Amino acid sequence: MSSSICWRCLANASPQPLRRASLKSRYPICLPTLTFSTTPYFQALPPKRSTGVKVTPKKGTKSLIIKRSKKQAENRGRRPAPGERKAMRKRIVLSNVNALEVPAMKNIDTENMLDRRLEGQVLGIPGPIVDQLRAAEAFKTTQSWGFFRSPGTLMRRETVDMGKMISEMSEDERARKTVRGVLVGEKGSGKSIILLQAMTMAFLKGWTVINLPE
Prior knowledge:
With 214 residues, the protein is an all-alpha fold. The chain has helices spanning 7-11, 84-89, 127-135, 157-171, 191-204; strands at residues 122-124, 152-154. It starts with 6 loop residues before the first helix and ends in a 10-residue tail after the last helix. The model has no long low-confidence stretch (mean pLDDT 77).
């Protein structure tokens, strides 16, 4: 099959520059355009800060003023006086009317405080000695004296030993000997009760007791 282009035409062809394709068309095309910026945000104007100064309105202008209603003070009763709460915390009740009375309970005295047969028994504290112990602040709030009708103490082996030491000190009163002792023990072992019993025996002997409470 012969081609429509002859070889002579191809040989005599002269190189001509190609015409650039025109982008223009007969009908214009409208494309949507958007603005685009790469400016960072810190180059923009900073936001305005409030100075906290209240600007008074000018004369002749109306301004809205909202008043907050104050809460009415609740009536909670009378406030405790100075030192009343501390006195309530340190209050010690030594008798309970609702507790049962033990009629056969003996009171401790200068004779039975040396009796080994009374170990493990509860002996009462006489009323005058209770007043002296209260004045010396020998009782503590953690000793639960309010469970009993009258104050009583348990006679232990250490109690009898303390009574013997106090009686020996009373016998050697003329010699004017000074006896120093330190009572040691674990927490909750009854050291404060032993000291209270020692003060009770000292008051029974007629001594002058000086107590330094906590």
